[in-house]
Protein backbone atom coordinates (compact mmCIF):
# COMPACT_ATOMS: atom_id res chain seq x y z
CA UNK A 1 0.00 0.00 0.00
CA UNK A 2 1.25 3.48 -0.86
CA UNK A 3 2.29 5.78 1.97
CA UNK A 4 0.26 8.99 2.01
CA UNK A 5 2.36 12.03 1.22
CA UNK A 6 0.63 14.86 3.06
CA UNK A 7 2.81 17.52 1.43
CA UNK A 8 0.95 16.95 -1.84
CA UNK A 9 -2.28 17.99 -0.15
CA UNK A 10 -0.78 21.05 1.54
CA UNK A 11 -2.85 24.13 0.78
CA UNK A 12 -1.61 27.65 0.74
CA UNK A 13 -3.51 30.82 0.00
CA UNK A 14 -4.79 30.94 -3.57
CA UNK A 15 -5.07 28.37 -6.25
CA UNK A 16 -4.87 28.09 -10.00
CA UNK A 17 -7.81 27.75 -12.31
CA UNK A 18 -8.01 25.86 -15.52
CA UNK A 19 -10.63 24.97 -18.02
CA UNK A 20 -11.15 23.62 -21.50
CA UNK A 21 -13.87 23.26 -23.98
CA UNK A 22 -16.13 20.25 -24.29
CA UNK A 23 -15.77 17.99 -27.34
CA UNK A 24 -18.82 17.69 -29.53
CA UNK A 25 -20.94 14.64 -28.58
CA UNK A 26 -22.87 12.44 -31.01
CA UNK A 27 -26.47 13.54 -30.54
CA UNK A 28 -27.80 11.62 -33.54
CA UNK A 29 -27.25 8.28 -31.77
CA UNK A 30 -29.37 9.33 -28.81
CA UNK A 31 -32.07 10.80 -31.05
CA UNK A 32 -32.40 7.55 -33.04
CA UNK A 33 -32.53 5.52 -29.83
CA UNK A 34 -35.14 7.86 -28.35
CA UNK A 35 -37.49 7.58 -31.34
CA UNK A 36 -37.24 3.78 -31.46
CA UNK A 37 -37.70 3.32 -27.72
CA UNK A 38 -40.59 5.75 -27.29
CA UNK A 39 -42.42 4.34 -30.29
CA UNK A 40 -42.31 0.73 -29.12
CA UNK A 41 -43.06 1.51 -25.45
CA UNK A 42 -46.64 2.44 -26.40
CA UNK A 43 -47.11 -0.83 -28.27
CA UNK A 44 -45.75 -2.88 -25.38
CA UNK A 45 -47.78 -1.03 -22.74
CA UNK A 46 -51.01 -1.78 -24.63
CA UNK A 47 -50.07 -5.44 -25.01
CA UNK A 48 -49.18 -5.67 -21.30
CA UNK A 49 -52.59 -4.34 -20.34
CA UNK A 50 -54.51 -6.87 -22.45
CA UNK A 51 -52.19 -9.76 -21.55
CA UNK A 52 -52.13 -8.93 -17.82
CA UNK A 53 -48.36 -9.59 -17.70
CA UNK A 54 -46.11 -8.00 -15.07
CA UNK A 55 -43.08 -8.99 -17.14
CA UNK A 56 -44.45 -6.97 -20.06
CA UNK A 57 -45.52 -4.15 -17.76
CA UNK A 58 -42.03 -4.00 -16.24
CA UNK A 59 -40.52 -4.11 -19.72
CA UNK A 60 -42.83 -1.32 -20.91
CA UNK A 61 -41.97 0.61 -17.76
CA UNK A 62 -38.32 0.11 -18.56
CA UNK A 63 -38.89 1.52 -22.02
CA UNK A 64 -40.82 4.57 -20.83
CA UNK A 65 -38.05 5.28 -18.34
CA UNK A 66 -35.52 4.60 -21.09
CA UNK A 67 -37.22 7.19 -23.28
CA UNK A 68 -37.09 9.72 -20.45
CA UNK A 69 -33.45 8.82 -19.79
CA UNK A 70 -32.56 9.14 -23.47
CA UNK A 71 -34.38 12.46 -23.67
CA UNK A 72 -32.51 13.70 -20.61
CA UNK A 73 -29.21 12.46 -22.04
CA UNK A 74 -29.93 14.17 -25.37
CA UNK A 75 -30.79 17.43 -23.60
CA UNK A 76 -27.62 17.14 -21.53
CA UNK A 77 -25.46 16.72 -24.62
CA UNK A 78 -27.10 19.76 -26.25
CA UNK A 79 -26.42 21.78 -23.11
CA UNK A 80 -22.87 20.42 -22.87
CA UNK A 81 -22.07 21.79 -26.35
CA UNK A 82 -22.79 25.35 -25.27
CA UNK A 83 -19.53 27.33 -25.13
CA UNK A 84 -18.26 28.89 -21.90
CA UNK A 85 -19.79 32.20 -20.91
CA UNK A 86 -18.96 34.92 -18.39
CA UNK A 87 -21.39 33.27 -15.93
CA UNK A 88 -20.32 29.67 -16.70
CA UNK A 89 -16.61 29.93 -17.43
CA UNK A 90 -16.07 26.15 -17.42
CA UNK A 91 -18.86 25.64 -19.97
CA UNK A 92 -21.57 23.03 -19.49
CA UNK A 93 -19.65 19.78 -19.89
CA UNK A 94 -20.76 18.54 -16.46
CA UNK A 95 -24.36 18.37 -17.64
CA UNK A 96 -23.64 14.91 -19.08
CA UNK A 97 -22.40 13.54 -15.75
CA UNK A 98 -25.35 15.10 -13.93
CA UNK A 99 -27.79 13.49 -16.36
CA UNK A 100 -26.04 10.12 -15.90
CA UNK A 101 -26.41 10.40 -12.12
CA UNK A 102 -30.11 11.29 -12.39
CA UNK A 103 -30.67 8.39 -14.79
CA UNK A 104 -29.01 6.00 -12.35
CA UNK A 105 -31.24 7.15 -9.48
CA UNK A 106 -34.32 6.75 -11.69
CA UNK A 107 -33.23 3.22 -12.59
CA UNK A 108 -32.90 2.29 -8.89
CA UNK A 109 -36.42 3.56 -8.23
CA UNK A 110 -37.82 1.55 -11.14
CA UNK A 111 -36.07 -1.63 -9.97
CA UNK A 112 -37.46 -1.16 -6.45
CA UNK A 113 -41.02 -0.80 -7.79
CA UNK A 114 -40.75 -3.87 -10.05
CA UNK A 115 -39.33 -6.06 -7.26
CA UNK A 116 -42.09 -4.96 -4.86
CA UNK A 117 -44.84 -5.59 -7.38
CA UNK A 118 -43.32 -8.94 -8.39
CA UNK A 119 -43.19 -10.18 -4.78
CA UNK A 120 -46.87 -9.38 -4.42
CA UNK A 121 -47.74 -11.25 -7.63
CA UNK A 122 -45.56 -14.20 -6.71
CA UNK A 123 -47.82 -15.01 -3.78
CA UNK A 124 -51.03 -14.01 -5.59
CA UNK A 125 -50.45 -14.93 -9.25
CA UNK A 126 -52.45 -13.07 -11.93
CA UNK A 127 -53.79 -14.67 -15.07
CA UNK A 128 -51.38 -13.97 -17.97
CA UNK A 129 -51.80 -14.50 -21.76
CA UNK A 130 -48.56 -16.37 -22.53
CA UNK A 131 -48.80 -16.16 -26.35
CA UNK A 132 -49.21 -12.37 -26.37
CA UNK A 133 -46.34 -11.99 -23.94
CA UNK A 134 -44.09 -14.22 -26.09
CA UNK A 135 -44.78 -12.41 -29.37
CA UNK A 136 -44.49 -8.87 -27.98
CA UNK A 137 -41.39 -9.72 -25.93
CA UNK A 138 -39.68 -11.21 -29.01
CA UNK A 139 -40.33 -8.06 -31.05
CA UNK A 140 -39.21 -5.93 -28.09
CA UNK A 141 -36.01 -7.93 -27.80
CA UNK A 142 -35.11 -7.26 -31.43
CA UNK A 143 -35.88 -3.57 -31.07
CA UNK A 144 -33.77 -3.29 -27.90
CA UNK A 145 -30.86 -5.04 -29.58
CA UNK A 146 -31.06 -2.42 -32.34
CA UNK A 147 -31.15 0.49 -29.87
CA UNK A 148 -28.26 -0.97 -27.84
CA UNK A 149 -26.24 -1.37 -31.05
CA UNK A 150 -26.87 2.28 -31.94
CA UNK A 151 -25.81 3.56 -28.52
CA UNK A 152 -22.73 1.33 -28.36
CA UNK A 153 -21.11 3.53 -31.02
CA UNK A 154 -20.54 6.26 -28.40
CA UNK A 155 -19.06 4.44 -25.38
CA UNK A 156 -16.75 7.30 -24.33
CA UNK A 157 -19.52 9.44 -22.83
CA UNK A 158 -20.60 8.48 -19.31
CA UNK A 159 -23.94 10.06 -20.12
CA UNK A 160 -24.50 7.84 -23.17
CA UNK A 161 -23.33 4.79 -21.23
CA UNK A 162 -25.86 5.60 -18.50
CA UNK A 163 -28.57 5.65 -21.15
CA UNK A 164 -27.15 2.38 -22.51
CA UNK A 165 -27.53 0.81 -19.06
CA UNK A 166 -31.24 1.63 -19.23
CA UNK A 167 -31.50 0.04 -22.64
CA UNK A 168 -29.53 -3.06 -21.57
CA UNK A 169 -31.86 -3.36 -18.61
CA UNK A 170 -34.78 -3.19 -20.99
CA UNK A 171 -33.13 -5.77 -23.25
CA UNK A 172 -32.84 -8.12 -20.28
CA UNK A 173 -36.43 -7.29 -19.45
CA UNK A 174 -37.44 -8.39 -22.93
CA UNK A 175 -35.48 -11.64 -22.47
CA UNK A 176 -37.21 -12.20 -19.15
CA UNK A 177 -40.61 -11.43 -20.60
CA UNK A 178 -39.93 -13.80 -23.52
CA UNK A 179 -38.94 -16.63 -21.17
CA UNK A 180 -41.93 -15.93 -18.92
CA UNK A 181 -44.25 -15.99 -21.91
CA UNK A 182 -42.86 -19.31 -23.13
CA UNK A 183 -43.07 -20.89 -19.66
CA UNK A 184 -46.68 -19.73 -19.17
CA UNK A 185 -47.68 -20.69 -22.70
CA UNK A 186 -46.37 -24.26 -22.43
CA UNK A 187 -46.74 -25.03 -18.69
CA UNK A 188 -49.36 -22.60 -17.41
CA UNK A 189 -47.17 -21.77 -14.36
CA UNK A 190 -48.16 -18.09 -13.68
CA UNK A 191 -45.51 -17.27 -10.99
CA UNK A 192 -42.85 -17.42 -13.75
CA UNK A 193 -43.96 -13.91 -14.78
CA UNK A 194 -43.14 -12.39 -11.39
CA UNK A 195 -40.06 -14.53 -10.76
CA UNK A 196 -38.33 -13.53 -13.99
CA UNK A 197 -39.17 -9.87 -13.40
CA UNK A 198 -37.24 -10.02 -10.10
CA UNK A 199 -34.32 -11.83 -11.75
CA UNK A 200 -34.01 -9.25 -14.56
CA UNK A 201 -34.23 -6.33 -12.12
CA UNK A 202 -31.38 -7.68 -10.01
CA UNK A 203 -29.20 -8.22 -13.07
CA UNK A 204 -29.23 -4.54 -14.02
CA UNK A 205 -28.32 -3.29 -10.54
CA UNK A 206 -24.56 -3.87 -11.02
CA UNK A 207 -24.32 -1.65 -14.11
CA UNK A 208 -26.53 0.99 -12.48
CA UNK A 209 -24.30 1.16 -9.39
CA UNK A 210 -21.22 1.44 -11.63
CA UNK A 211 -22.66 4.45 -13.46
CA UNK A 212 -23.75 6.06 -10.18
CA UNK A 213 -20.30 5.58 -8.68
CA UNK A 214 -18.50 7.04 -11.70
CA UNK A 215 -20.79 10.05 -12.17
CA UNK A 216 -20.83 10.79 -8.41
CA UNK A 217 -17.03 10.61 -8.28
CA UNK A 218 -16.81 13.04 -11.19
CA UNK A 219 -19.37 15.48 -9.80
CA UNK A 220 -17.48 15.53 -6.48
CA UNK A 221 -14.29 16.44 -8.43
CA UNK A 222 -12.52 13.23 -7.47
CA UNK A 223 -9.18 12.21 -8.92
CA UNK A 224 -9.87 10.44 -12.26
CA UNK A 225 -10.22 6.72 -11.61
CA UNK A 226 -7.44 5.83 -14.06
CA UNK A 227 -4.90 8.20 -12.45
CA UNK A 228 -2.84 7.44 -9.31
CA UNK A 229 -2.64 10.75 -7.45
CA UNK A 230 0.32 9.70 -5.26
CA UNK A 231 2.24 8.43 -8.27
CA UNK A 232 1.70 11.75 -10.09
CA UNK A 233 3.11 13.64 -7.11
CA UNK A 234 6.06 11.29 -6.84
CA UNK A 235 6.83 11.58 -10.57
CA UNK A 236 6.70 15.37 -10.40
CA UNK A 237 9.30 15.36 -7.65
CA UNK A 238 11.58 13.20 -9.80
CA UNK A 239 11.63 15.71 -12.69
CA UNK A 240 15.13 17.27 -12.89
CA UNK A 241 15.05 20.77 -11.44
CA UNK A 242 11.98 20.23 -9.22
CA UNK A 243 12.81 20.68 -5.52
CA UNK A 244 9.35 20.29 -4.00
CA UNK A 245 5.66 19.97 -4.90
CA UNK A 246 2.67 21.25 -2.95
CA UNK A 247 -0.95 22.34 -3.35
CA UNK A 248 -1.39 19.60 -5.98
CA UNK A 249 -4.87 18.86 -7.38
CA UNK A 250 -5.92 16.43 -10.11
CA UNK A 251 -9.51 16.26 -11.33
CA UNK A 252 -11.69 16.16 -14.45
CA UNK A 253 -13.22 19.42 -15.64
CA UNK A 254 -15.46 17.54 -18.05
CA UNK A 255 -15.62 13.75 -18.55
CA UNK A 256 -12.41 12.22 -19.98
CA UNK A 257 -10.43 15.50 -19.79
CA UNK A 258 -8.14 15.38 -16.72
CA UNK A 259 -6.52 18.55 -15.42
CA UNK A 260 -3.78 19.30 -12.93
CA UNK A 261 -2.84 22.39 -10.94
CA UNK A 262 -0.15 22.83 -8.32
CA UNK A 263 2.91 24.69 -7.12
CA UNK A 264 6.49 23.73 -7.95
CA UNK A 265 9.54 24.90 -6.05
CA UNK A 266 12.69 25.41 -8.14
CA UNK A 267 16.19 26.82 -7.59
CA UNK A 268 16.13 29.62 -10.18
CA UNK A 269 13.25 31.16 -12.10
CA UNK A 270 15.34 31.22 -15.28
CA UNK A 271 15.24 27.40 -15.31
CA UNK A 272 11.43 27.27 -15.29
CA UNK A 273 10.68 27.09 -19.06
CA UNK A 274 12.91 24.03 -19.46
CA UNK A 275 11.56 22.38 -16.28
CA UNK A 276 7.97 23.02 -17.35
CA UNK A 277 8.66 21.47 -20.73
CA UNK A 278 9.96 18.30 -19.04
CA UNK A 279 6.94 18.21 -16.73
CA UNK A 280 4.48 18.53 -19.62
CA UNK A 281 6.10 15.64 -21.50
CA UNK A 282 6.11 13.43 -18.40
CA UNK A 283 2.50 14.14 -17.39
CA UNK A 284 1.19 13.53 -20.91
CA UNK A 285 3.19 10.41 -21.72
CA UNK A 286 2.89 8.68 -18.34
CA UNK A 287 -0.45 9.88 -16.97
CA UNK A 288 -2.38 11.22 -19.98
CA UNK A 289 -2.69 14.71 -18.46
CA UNK A 290 -2.27 17.61 -20.88
CA UNK A 291 -4.26 20.37 -19.15
CA UNK A 292 -1.57 21.54 -16.75
CA UNK A 293 -1.32 24.76 -14.73
CA UNK A 294 1.72 24.95 -12.45
CA UNK A 295 3.04 27.95 -10.55
CA UNK A 296 6.82 28.09 -10.08
CA UNK A 297 8.25 29.35 -6.79
CA UNK A 298 11.89 29.95 -5.93
CA UNK A 299 12.92 27.74 -3.02
CA UNK A 300 13.61 29.69 0.18
CA UNK A 301 11.32 32.53 -0.85
CA UNK A 302 8.03 30.71 -0.20
CA UNK A 303 5.93 31.07 2.94
CA UNK A 304 2.33 30.42 3.90
CA UNK A 305 1.15 33.56 2.11
CA UNK A 306 3.26 33.47 -1.05
CA UNK A 307 1.69 32.42 -4.35
CA UNK A 308 1.51 34.58 -7.42
CA UNK A 309 1.75 37.81 -5.36
CA UNK A 310 5.48 37.96 -6.15
CA UNK A 311 4.87 37.96 -9.88
CA UNK A 312 2.08 40.50 -9.54
CA UNK A 313 4.33 42.74 -7.44
CA UNK A 314 7.05 42.64 -10.08
CA UNK A 315 4.51 43.56 -12.74
CA UNK A 316 3.17 46.43 -10.65
CA UNK A 317 6.69 47.90 -10.41
CA UNK A 318 6.31 48.94 -14.04
CA UNK A 319 3.86 51.79 -14.48
CA UNK A 320 3.73 51.31 -18.26
CA UNK A 321 0.45 49.90 -19.54
CA UNK A 322 -0.07 49.65 -23.29
CA UNK A 323 -3.56 50.07 -24.73
CA UNK A 324 -3.13 49.20 -28.36
CA UNK A 325 0.13 51.12 -28.81
CA UNK A 326 2.01 50.42 -32.04
CA UNK A 327 5.63 49.25 -32.21
CA UNK A 328 7.88 47.83 -34.92
CA UNK A 329 10.33 44.97 -35.25
CA UNK A 330 12.91 44.74 -38.03
CA UNK A 331 12.76 41.46 -39.92
CA UNK A 332 14.75 40.02 -42.81
CA UNK A 333 13.81 38.44 -46.12
CA UNK A 334 15.67 37.48 -49.32
CA UNK A 335 14.85 40.99 -50.58
CA UNK A 336 16.39 42.67 -47.54
CA UNK A 337 15.05 44.05 -44.25
CA UNK A 338 11.46 45.12 -43.62
CA UNK A 339 9.50 46.32 -40.62
CA UNK A 340 6.57 44.47 -39.08
CA UNK A 341 4.19 46.47 -36.93
CA UNK A 342 2.62 45.06 -33.79
CA UNK A 343 0.04 46.45 -31.40
CA UNK A 344 0.28 45.76 -27.68
CA UNK A 345 -2.06 45.70 -24.71
CA UNK A 346 -1.08 45.28 -21.07
CA UNK A 347 2.14 45.51 -19.07
CA UNK A 348 5.35 44.86 -21.05
CA UNK A 349 7.01 43.67 -17.81
CA UNK A 350 4.59 40.72 -17.70
CA UNK A 351 6.45 37.54 -18.60
CA UNK A 352 3.19 35.94 -19.77
CA UNK A 353 2.84 36.88 -23.44
CA UNK A 354 -0.05 36.07 -25.78
CA UNK A 355 0.60 36.41 -29.51
CA UNK A 356 -2.57 36.90 -31.59
CA UNK A 357 -2.14 36.46 -35.35
CA UNK A 358 -4.88 37.36 -37.83
CA UNK A 359 -6.22 35.89 -41.06
CA UNK A 360 -5.26 36.38 -44.71
CA UNK A 361 -6.74 39.84 -45.33
CA UNK A 362 -7.02 41.02 -41.73
CA UNK A 363 -4.74 42.88 -39.30
CA UNK A 364 -3.81 42.91 -35.61
CA UNK A 365 -6.67 45.24 -34.67
CA UNK A 366 -9.00 42.23 -35.06
CA UNK A 367 -8.05 41.25 -31.52
CA UNK A 368 -8.74 44.60 -29.80
CA UNK A 369 -11.72 43.28 -27.80
CA UNK A 370 -9.96 40.04 -26.89
CA UNK A 371 -6.69 41.82 -26.05
CA UNK A 372 -8.41 44.27 -23.70
CA UNK A 373 -10.02 41.35 -21.86
CA UNK A 374 -6.76 39.38 -21.64
CA UNK A 375 -4.41 42.29 -20.83
CA UNK A 376 -4.80 41.97 -17.05
CA UNK A 377 -3.23 38.49 -17.14
CA UNK A 378 -1.11 38.74 -20.30
CA UNK A 379 0.99 41.12 -22.29
CA UNK A 380 -0.99 40.76 -25.52
CA UNK A 381 0.87 41.34 -28.78
CA UNK A 382 -1.05 41.51 -32.08
CA UNK A 383 1.17 41.89 -35.17
CA UNK A 384 0.18 43.17 -38.57
CA UNK A 385 1.61 40.39 -40.73
CA UNK A 386 3.91 41.86 -43.37
CA UNK A 387 1.93 43.37 -46.25
CA UNK A 388 -0.97 44.29 -43.95
CA UNK A 389 -1.89 47.25 -41.79
CA UNK A 390 1.08 49.35 -40.64
CA UNK A 391 3.70 46.81 -41.71
CA UNK A 392 5.93 47.25 -44.76
CA UNK A 393 5.07 45.84 -48.20
CA UNK A 394 7.39 43.32 -49.81
CA UNK A 395 8.94 43.92 -53.20
CA UNK A 396 8.63 40.26 -54.21
CA UNK A 397 4.98 39.20 -53.72
CA UNK A 398 5.92 35.50 -53.79
CA UNK A 399 7.44 36.04 -50.33
CA UNK A 400 3.94 36.55 -48.95
CA UNK A 401 3.91 33.00 -47.62
CA UNK A 402 3.97 31.07 -44.34
CA UNK A 403 7.79 30.52 -44.20
CA UNK A 404 8.40 34.28 -44.28
CA UNK A 405 5.63 34.89 -41.76
CA UNK A 406 7.10 32.31 -39.35
CA UNK A 407 10.53 33.94 -39.63
CA UNK A 408 9.00 37.34 -38.86
CA UNK A 409 7.22 35.96 -35.79
CA UNK A 410 10.51 34.52 -34.54
CA UNK A 411 12.07 37.98 -34.87
CA UNK A 412 9.16 39.50 -32.96
CA UNK A 413 9.42 37.02 -30.05
CA UNK A 414 13.19 37.53 -29.91
CA UNK A 415 12.65 41.29 -29.59
CA UNK A 416 10.09 40.72 -26.81
CA UNK A 417 12.77 38.82 -24.89
CA UNK A 418 10.57 35.99 -23.61
CA UNK A 419 11.22 32.25 -23.53
CA UNK A 420 7.59 31.15 -23.93
CA UNK A 421 4.43 32.52 -25.50
CA UNK A 422 0.85 31.41 -25.92
CA UNK A 423 -0.61 31.61 -29.43
CA UNK A 424 -4.01 32.58 -30.79
CA UNK A 425 -4.19 32.13 -34.55
CA UNK A 426 -7.19 32.85 -36.73
CA UNK A 427 -7.23 31.21 -40.18
CA UNK A 428 -3.83 32.10 -41.70
CA UNK A 429 -2.60 32.93 -38.19
CA UNK A 430 -3.46 29.37 -37.18
CA UNK A 431 -1.43 27.94 -40.08
CA UNK A 432 1.55 30.11 -39.09
CA UNK A 433 1.21 28.88 -35.53
CA UNK A 434 1.03 25.23 -36.56
CA UNK A 435 4.21 25.46 -38.64
CA UNK A 436 6.02 27.42 -35.91
CA UNK A 437 4.90 25.00 -33.16
CA UNK A 438 6.14 22.01 -35.17
CA UNK A 439 9.71 23.37 -35.21
CA UNK A 440 12.31 22.16 -32.67
CA UNK A 441 12.78 24.39 -29.59
CA UNK A 442 9.88 26.66 -30.55
CA UNK A 443 8.58 29.00 -27.80
CA UNK A 444 4.85 28.20 -28.05
CA UNK A 445 3.39 26.81 -24.80
CA UNK A 446 -0.23 26.31 -25.85
CA UNK A 447 -2.23 27.31 -28.90
CA UNK A 448 -5.79 28.13 -29.90
CA UNK A 449 -6.38 27.55 -33.61
CA UNK A 450 -9.41 29.45 -34.86
CA UNK A 451 -11.20 27.75 -37.76
CA UNK A 452 -8.35 26.36 -39.82
CA UNK A 453 -6.58 23.04 -40.24
CA UNK A 454 -4.11 21.20 -42.46
CA UNK A 455 -6.83 20.80 -45.10
CA UNK A 456 -8.62 23.81 -46.56
CA UNK A 457 -11.81 23.01 -48.43
CA UNK A 458 -11.79 23.86 -52.19
CA UNK A 459 -15.06 25.80 -51.83
CA UNK A 460 -13.40 28.14 -49.33
CA UNK A 461 -10.39 28.66 -51.58
CA UNK A 462 -12.74 29.63 -54.41
CA UNK A 463 -14.64 32.02 -52.12
CA UNK A 464 -11.43 33.69 -50.90
CA UNK A 465 -10.21 34.08 -54.46
CA UNK A 466 -13.39 35.96 -55.34
CA UNK A 467 -12.38 38.97 -53.23
CA UNK A 468 -8.73 38.77 -52.10
CA UNK A 469 -6.77 41.31 -54.08
CA UNK A 470 -9.81 42.28 -56.15
CA UNK A 471 -10.67 45.98 -56.70
CA UNK A 472 -12.13 47.56 -53.58
CA UNK A 473 -12.52 51.33 -53.98
CA UNK A 474 -15.28 53.54 -52.54
CA UNK A 475 -15.77 57.28 -52.35
CA UNK A 476 -17.70 57.13 -49.08
CA UNK A 477 -16.57 55.25 -45.98
CA UNK A 478 -20.10 53.98 -45.03
CA UNK A 479 -20.38 52.32 -48.45
CA UNK A 480 -16.97 50.70 -48.05
CA UNK A 481 -17.81 49.47 -44.56
CA UNK A 482 -21.14 48.05 -45.70
CA UNK A 483 -19.46 46.11 -48.50
CA UNK A 484 -16.76 44.80 -46.15
CA UNK A 485 -19.42 43.72 -43.65
CA UNK A 486 -21.11 41.75 -46.43
CA UNK A 487 -17.83 40.01 -47.29
CA UNK A 488 -17.34 39.16 -43.61
CA UNK A 489 -20.91 37.98 -42.99
CA UNK A 490 -19.69 34.46 -42.24
CA UNK A 491 -17.92 35.76 -39.12
CA UNK A 492 -21.26 35.77 -37.33
CA UNK A 493 -24.05 38.18 -36.46
CA UNK A 494 -22.78 41.44 -34.97
CA UNK A 495 -24.19 44.80 -34.02
CA UNK A 496 -23.23 47.89 -36.05
CA UNK A 497 -20.98 48.92 -33.15
CA UNK A 498 -19.21 45.57 -33.17
CA UNK A 499 -18.74 45.72 -36.95
CA UNK A 500 -17.21 49.19 -36.58
CA UNK A 501 -14.72 47.97 -34.00
CA UNK A 502 -13.90 44.86 -36.00
CA UNK A 503 -13.97 46.06 -39.63
CA UNK A 504 -13.42 49.80 -39.26
CA UNK A 505 -9.60 49.52 -39.07
CA UNK A 506 -9.61 47.45 -42.27
CA UNK A 507 -10.41 50.61 -44.26
CA UNK A 508 -7.81 53.26 -45.07
CA UNK A 509 -8.11 56.45 -47.11
CA UNK A 510 -5.80 56.83 -50.08
CA UNK A 511 -5.97 59.67 -52.60
CA UNK A 512 -9.42 60.59 -51.25
CA UNK A 513 -10.79 57.06 -51.73
CA UNK A 514 -11.48 54.30 -49.22
CA UNK A 515 -9.54 51.10 -49.89
CA UNK A 516 -8.45 47.98 -48.00
CA UNK A 517 -5.42 48.21 -45.71
CA UNK A 518 -3.43 45.37 -47.28
CA UNK A 519 -1.13 45.06 -50.28
CA UNK A 520 -3.24 43.60 -53.13
CA UNK A 521 -0.19 41.55 -54.12
CA UNK A 522 -0.77 39.20 -51.15
CA UNK A 523 -3.13 37.46 -53.59
CA UNK A 524 -0.32 36.61 -56.03
CA UNK A 525 1.03 33.47 -54.29
CA UNK A 526 -2.51 32.58 -53.28
CA UNK A 527 -3.71 32.67 -56.90
CA UNK A 528 -0.68 30.74 -58.19
CA UNK A 529 -1.54 27.58 -56.27
CA UNK A 530 -2.62 24.71 -58.55
CA UNK A 531 -4.23 21.41 -57.41
CA UNK A 532 -0.88 19.58 -57.27
CA UNK A 533 0.70 22.33 -55.17
CA UNK A 534 -2.37 22.42 -52.93
CA UNK A 535 -2.16 18.67 -52.31
CA UNK A 536 1.55 18.86 -51.55
CA UNK A 537 0.96 21.75 -49.18
CA UNK A 538 -1.79 19.84 -47.42
CA UNK A 539 0.48 16.82 -46.92
CA UNK A 540 3.21 19.07 -45.52
CA UNK A 541 0.75 20.70 -43.10
CA UNK A 542 -0.49 17.32 -41.86
CA UNK A 543 3.11 16.27 -41.24
CA UNK A 544 3.80 19.49 -39.33
CA UNK A 545 0.60 19.17 -37.33
CA UNK A 546 1.54 15.69 -36.11
CA UNK A 547 4.83 17.06 -34.73
CA UNK A 548 3.10 19.48 -32.34
CA UNK A 549 3.25 18.37 -28.71
CA UNK A 550 1.50 21.18 -26.82
CA UNK A 551 -2.10 21.59 -25.65
CA UNK A 552 -4.27 22.86 -28.51
CA UNK A 553 -7.87 23.96 -28.82
CA UNK A 554 -9.48 23.89 -32.26
CA UNK A 555 -12.42 26.29 -32.59
CA UNK A 556 -14.66 25.69 -35.58
CA UNK A 557 -17.52 27.82 -36.81
CA UNK A 558 -20.51 25.51 -37.04
CA UNK A 559 -21.15 26.61 -40.64
CA UNK A 560 -17.52 27.02 -41.71
CA UNK A 561 -16.76 26.27 -45.36
CA UNK A 562 -13.00 26.34 -44.76
CA UNK A 563 -12.60 23.88 -41.87
CA UNK A 564 -14.87 20.85 -42.16
CA UNK A 565 -16.10 18.78 -39.24
CA UNK A 566 -14.40 15.80 -40.90
CA UNK A 567 -11.04 17.58 -40.83
CA UNK A 568 -11.50 18.47 -37.15
CA UNK A 569 -12.24 14.82 -36.37
CA UNK A 570 -9.10 13.75 -38.22
CA UNK A 571 -7.02 16.37 -36.38
CA UNK A 572 -8.29 15.02 -33.05
CA UNK A 573 -7.49 11.48 -34.17
CA UNK A 574 -3.91 12.04 -35.27
CA UNK A 575 -2.82 14.36 -32.47
CA UNK A 576 -3.61 13.42 -28.83
CA UNK A 577 -2.89 16.95 -27.58
CA UNK A 578 -5.92 18.48 -29.24
CA UNK A 579 -9.42 19.33 -28.08
CA UNK A 580 -12.14 20.93 -30.21
CA UNK A 581 -15.26 23.02 -29.84
CA UNK A 582 -17.82 24.14 -32.39
CA UNK A 583 -19.54 27.54 -32.25
CA UNK A 584 -23.02 27.31 -33.80
CA UNK A 585 -24.42 29.94 -36.13
CA UNK A 586 -20.97 31.08 -37.32
CA UNK A 587 -19.13 30.36 -40.55
CA UNK A 588 -15.47 31.11 -41.21
CA UNK A 589 -14.28 32.35 -38.75
CA UNK A 590 -15.56 33.28 -35.25
CA UNK A 591 -14.54 36.89 -34.61
CA UNK A 592 -14.06 36.61 -30.84
CA UNK A 593 -15.75 39.91 -30.11
CA UNK A 594 -18.74 38.28 -28.41
CA UNK A 595 -18.45 37.92 -24.60
CA UNK A 596 -18.99 34.16 -24.66
CA UNK A 597 -16.25 33.67 -27.27
CA UNK A 598 -13.84 35.90 -25.34
CA UNK A 599 -14.62 33.89 -22.20
CA UNK A 600 -13.80 30.67 -24.07
CA UNK A 601 -10.32 32.00 -24.97
CA UNK A 602 -9.70 33.33 -21.45
CA UNK A 603 -10.47 29.98 -19.89
CA UNK A 604 -8.33 28.03 -22.32
CA UNK A 605 -5.29 30.24 -21.69
CA UNK A 606 -5.81 30.56 -17.93
Task: List the main descriptive attributes of the protein structure presented here.
606 residues, alpha/beta, 8-stranded mixed beta sheet, 3-stranded mixed beta sheet, 20 helices, 13 strands, 49% helix, disordered N terminus
Written account of the structure:
The chain has helices at 27-51, 54-80, 95-123, 130-151, 158-187, 191-203, 205-219, 229-238, 272-287, 309-316, 368-374, 402-416, 428-437, 458-465, 477-487, 496-503, 523-527, 531-546, 565-574, 595-605, and strands at residues 244-254, 257-266, 291-298, 322-333, 336-346, 353-357, 379-383, 421-426, 444-450, 507-510, 513-516, 552-557, 578-583. The chain contains 20 helices and 13 strands. It is 49% helix and 16% strand. The strands form 3 sheets. Strands 4-5-7-6-8-9-12-13 form an 8-stranded mixed beta sheet, with helices on both faces. Strands 1-2-3 form a 3-stranded mixed beta sheet, covered by helices on one side. It is an alpha/beta fold and 606 residues long. The two termini are 36 Å apart. The model is unreliable at 1-25 and 302-317 (pLDDT under 50).
Largest sheet: 8 strands, mixed
Given helix and strand content, the structural type is alpha/beta
Extended strand count: 13
Low-pLDDT regions:
1-25, 302-317
